[in-house]
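Lab notebook, bench 4. The sequencing result for the construct came back, and we need a structural model before the next group meeting so we can plan mutations. Quick request posted to the team channel:

Model the 3D structure of this chain.
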Amino acid sequence: MLSFMVALVLIARPGAPQGVPGPGRGVSEALAQERAGIVRNLRYELIFAVPADRREPVRGRAIARLTLAAPHRLVFDFVQPADRLHRVRAGGRALAPAVVDGHIVVPAEMTTAGENQIEFEFEAGDDALNRNDDFLYTLFVPARAQLAFPCFDQPDLKARYTLTLTVPGDWQAVANGAEARRASEAGAIAIDFVETPPLPTYLFSFVAGKFSVESATRNGRTLRMFHRETDAAKVARNRDAIFDLHASALNWLEEYTAIRYPWGKFDIVLIPSFQFGGMEHAGAILYSAAGLMLDESATQNQLLERASVIAHETAHMWFGDLVTMRWFNDVWMKEVFANFMAAKIVNPSFPQVNHDLRFLLAHYPAAYQVDRTEGTNAIRQSLANLEEAGQLYGPIIYQKAPVVMRQLEMIVGADRFRDGLRQYLKRYSYGNATWPDLVRILDGRTRQNITEWSRAWVEERGRPAFTTSVQLNGKGRVAAITIAQSDPRKRGLVWPQQLRIALGYEGSVKELRVYVKQPVTSVRGAKGLPRPLYVLPTGGGLGYGLFVLDEASRDYLIGHVEDVPDALTRGAAWVTLWDNLQESLIGPDAFLDAAMRALPREQDEQNAQRMLAYVARVFWRFVPPAERGARAPALEAMLRAGVARGRTQSEKAAWFNAYRDVVLTADGVAWLARVWRRDERVAGLTLAEPDEISMALELAVRDAPGWEEMLRTQIDRTQNPDRKARLAFVAPALSADPAVRERAFARFRFVENRRREPWVLESLQYLNHPLREAHARRFVRPALDLLREIQQTGDIFFPTRWMDATLWGHRSPEIAATVREFLAEEPQYPERLRWTILSTADELFRVAR
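Done. Here's the predicted structure in token form:
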């Protein structure tokens, strides 16, 4: 199918210059360097007219003002059919430019030394405007502004923007700049926004539609929140927490960076079914509404995740917005500092939470899920064209990089590290910088060679593997403990890092600190100690890598992990045991037995939620379908008991959600149906509309008696119009009729049916549910065939999530073979998409073996 990202054919209009060299498809690094070398003092004046009828186009006018040292061709990016470009003027003169590969080429003879003004009239593409019937929002990261208007779509050509929006009279509008004035005209309103400070195109944004607006004042600063939630009680319950968390994050960041908030006004926009958790548009952050507007049944993890995403996006106002990477090969820098700062910011708001454990569980499992695979990637990668920039995003930059940055902070020292970041932010404010720029600053503050340290951690892919060895003397005491580090990819790399070796004794844990910077390291302080029950090199939640436990430690922990007295050490033990399960050093039955035995005794809610997630994963992925029925009664009984035992609504919700996701027995399904029908209550747990929707979907995929009526009833009783529309879209994927499910999948072949990515992903997850595995095998190859188009037409996380949703329910050798055959048949397949497939399929490959 021809998509909008297919390269446009050269259209020779009358009067167009002949022989103009084509700039090539996308934004190549060479093109970006050419433009960055010549363009100065860039400003955009943008006007968009948004009609009430979504079928009518958004019309726009753009004026680019810039300075050139000498006449030079100007290559603007505009990836739309040529007939959507209505008029171009350069210096007041009309021209018919060449349109090549999604670019508008203004020839050098139409430019002049000094100030230049290029004007465009056009129809904006809907692809990055995310148009719905009564609202729209722009999402231009990493290089999608060119889908909406002609521009230089690269991060190091920052510009000042002025914006005028004409929207229906009953709509609200918000943008990066503050509102300057508005005027009514024929049922519409025209709103002018003040000029912004310098911004890259991917951070320019506006939102318009039917929104309600809440406002609050915190520390003398006015905050506004735009939302579409129809449950007034839900808004009231969340409102102050959302404002307070933003205010705390702003205060913390101003103090840490020693730089005042740089963007003037501060707005928050909650988007239903948003593609991301949040997006850091300067002055107007966009969030997924579901992530911030929490229900009464929210778990501790959901509360922490809300605080974390707020802190993350607020940190971007400095890290990414104020100082921006020069090229998207350094996109990880803005993400690592946003996540790293978020971990620090959240701590004071949750004094009862073990934050070292929070850091461990929020980062290590997700990073390992990619870094253990053949599809892993380096934190910092080369990037020839921004067309591929979306594939740089993922757990390696979001979860591994903060672990790496914590190690760097320990090497440099917390105060010197902070002072180095202050110098970096001040030096490059409103500009662009690279990782080597920051390394040079930090290198000057420590005797360590940060450049050399960076090679293994930042520039190379993969993780180290560690093995431990315990030697005893003749009296049964420790003679020596050694840690051996190796490079699984045989490059001879060593990853220098701080470790805390946890030695377990009856009722206590002793930690020994060690800095490993060579292939074999002897643990100081171990000699002469009593023989430990176990040796856990991931004590303190610090060590990063595959830690192959010695046999005695592995046997003790899998049999007695609940006896480990310290919550952080227990959490580290579970993450390490899961890694050893992946390496087939622990069997799934033994792991599941250990978790079911330990869960009733676990007092830390973070650990309990991680264990519950592992239980569900083992049950669906590692336990053969024929054995699930035998294990289900005991598992459900354990989970029901956990719901009853929960001390808080948050704990009860975590156990109930796990039960809902794995229930299989007829009695268990019947109980869940009674709860959904409101015939039976869960004592101490208030279930809201999203909870009931989730129950209806889980009951339907299990073919519960009356499932069709359940779905119809749930659609009817859903009050929120956005949730109602999403449920109606997903419902066909739940059908017991295979033909209906096949038609539900067939919708995704057409790009217009993939616009609401969260709806598509939820549908795909249910189509590939383990209970539908046999029939779902027919969807895997078509889903693989669509992946390149998914990458070309979707947002940055869509390709990985598409593959996750496709493969999560499969465990058969046949599907593992299907994936490998696809890769074998596509030797020229884009490398980053190949990595996406390999990382997503890794667990499937392991189980199938």
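The chain is about 40% helix and 20% strand.
Will bring this to the meeting.
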